[in-house]
Every structure is written in structure tokens, then in C-alpha cells.
Amino acid sequence: MGEAMRLHWQPVCLSSQLKDLPLALRIFGEDLVAFRDRKGQVGLLHKHCSHRGASLEFGRITDEGIRCCYHGWHFSHDGRLLDAPAEPPHSPLLRQVKHGAYPVMEFRGLVFAYLGPPAQMPAFPNFDSMQFDGVDLVPYALSHECNWLQVHENLMDPLHAVFLHSRMGEIQLTEAWGEMPAVEWFEQGDRVCYLTSRQIDDHVWVRFNEVAFPNFGQVAGFWEDGKAVKYFERIGATRWTVPIDNTHCWIFGWRHFSPSLEAKGLGNASQVGLNRLDIYGQTGDRCYDEMQRNTGDWEAEVSQGPIAIHAKENKGSSDRGVVMLRRHLAQGLDKAHQPPRSIDGQTPTWTCNVVLHRPDPMPAQGTLTLSSQELLAIGRSVQAIILAADALPPALRQAHIVANLKALSKPYFA
Length: 414
Prior knowledge:
Helices cover 20% and strands 27% of the residues.
């Protein structure tokens, strides 16, 4: 998986971490140094100087790169040796030495790098969720003391939210998350997805989440309670689960903030950043007693051990999405990866919350309870409408999906 991830652009740090000093970091088991030179150019270099191995984390940032503290060797952001001041002016070292460096791209507060073979470098990703009008993308980074997969696969385990986030402690999101949903998982191209459908009084709340090969994922808005009609309300967080090494990883991503997503006033952008997120239980910074009494995602993932041993698991039908994701990743290693479909330069994504209103029943009838099969049928219809719009230009897609979702309630709830 490390080789597969290197064929994709990966976040490696927050832009805000690059200040007046170099930043030592470790990604994919490789020790690196990131910096921003005085002209604003970002570099990502091998940590140890090509001269005699001193760490560039102790280097001096310059107008055009970084100088090693030991003998002043001066490297550009692309690894060129610009100067070796203890050597003669025409030293062949200036022509021969090329320090290890990776291409980088800054986007909306995240620093991305491509760490694979140069000849296979893909275009920088442009998911539609990176370009929404009226949505603030607030970058964050969360460290985890465990293998990346047990963090990433949590995205395809919607049933943990019923228990971990609702029934086993305090309500961490909204009460609606504690309702047992009808669930369906499916694969679509480079992605694995789930649909959950819940009946909340006279509404049906359908939640659509996705992960893409190899380590990208999105989750819909966090504060949904299923009490008001919503059509294709989009994303609460976009994220990548990036290995530091085999037993440590980062989540890098953006929290999405907009008036509609945060209508309840529960989100807080000021609480989002380096090892900070405004969603409960996503970091290991709480006291141990609180972790025991009101456990969050971080503890559930990290407590599986440095590397979860799958042979010790006793999986059930509720784990179908996790098993599907593991298989999808394994099969993806044997495939020649094709870039995701792009329309007008953007890759459409599907993650959303949809809440449909069922007309109130006659008072004598009481509230009609929908069966799991009926809830699944509604979820599949929502899925079909969203996927069918992929070929539309981004400017038309949102309105088209909303119009069809509005029409959807008529055959089911007439």
C-alpha cells in the first residue's frame, strides 16, 4: 500500500506549520524536512544533508532554499546544490550533487507532495468538494499511534456510530445517530461507499459516505438530526489517512463550514487545526478517566494495538463494509490505476445527507413505521439519482440532483 500511495498526491503537513524554522517530519517511513523559503517557495527534502549527514531540521532557511548548519551547503527547494562554501568556486560537486527532493503543492492550507516515480506523477486532484462556493475549508491534522488502516476503515463502519457515538456514552453528535439504520455498502469505480437510511419521526434521513483508493475519504455533515427536509447537503470533512510508518499515521483534511452545514451552531472553526478538531473524541488529548467513561473514535482505533491483527477478529454482517474496503484495497494493488472521471476539470463526489419528508399520516393512523427493506429502497433511489448526474457539468449537477430528489418523495410517500 505504501507504493500505491506514493502514486498519488498526499498531504504531508499544514501550511501553518511552515514558519521561520524547518519542520522535521516522517511520511511512509521516510525522514524528511519541509520548509518555506523567504520567497515563499515550499520545499520537501531528505532530512540528512548529502554532504556528511547532518539533519536539515537544524538548517538555516534562505531566500532560495535551505543551508545545512554543519558546513553551509545550500540546497534549493528542488534539491539542487546551489553552493558549498567550504569548497573551491568551481567544485564539481555543484554539478554532481542532487539532494533528494519531492514535488510539492500548497492548496487551501495543506501541503501536498508527490513521493512516487517522476514519470508516473498524476495531475493534482481536484475533487468537487475542494471547490464549493460559500464553503470554508479549514485544514486540520490528527495524529494516531497505530497503523493507518484501522483508522481509515472506520469510515466504512457506520454502525459504530450507533453505539460509540450514542448508546455507549454521552451523545457525541445528535440523538438521531443512535437510531439503528438500514445499511447498504457498494463499490463504484475507485470508491467504496455506504448508504444508511433512518426513519426519524415523519422523515427519512439517508447518509451517503465514500472512500477512494488508496486513502481518501469524505463524511457528510456531522450535526444532522433528520428533523428537517434537506436535499443533497454536502460534506462535513474531506480527509486523507497518511501513514507515518507502520504503527503511526496522520489524518490530514479539511473541516467544511457553511451556513447550512452549521445551522445549529454546533461547529467551531476556531477549534480546528493541528491535533485539534471540533468533533468529540478525535484526538488523544483527554484525560484517561474521560476516555474510559465517554470513549471516542481515537481510543477505539488506537486501542486495537499498533497493528490490528485481523486473524483474531470475529466479524459479523455489520462488518461487511470493512471487509469490502479491505478487499477493495487488496484488489487495487493488482490493477493499473485509472484516474477518477473528471468533468470540466473536477472529479464528482457523492457524500451527502438527504432528508425526505413523508406527509403526516391521518391522526387515527399514528406514525407509519417503515421496514428495513423500504428504507433500503429509498436509499437506493437516492443513490441512483446522485450517481446518474456524474456526467453533468459541475454548475448544473447540484440543481439537477436537488430537483430529482424533490420528486423522489412522491412515489414513496404519496
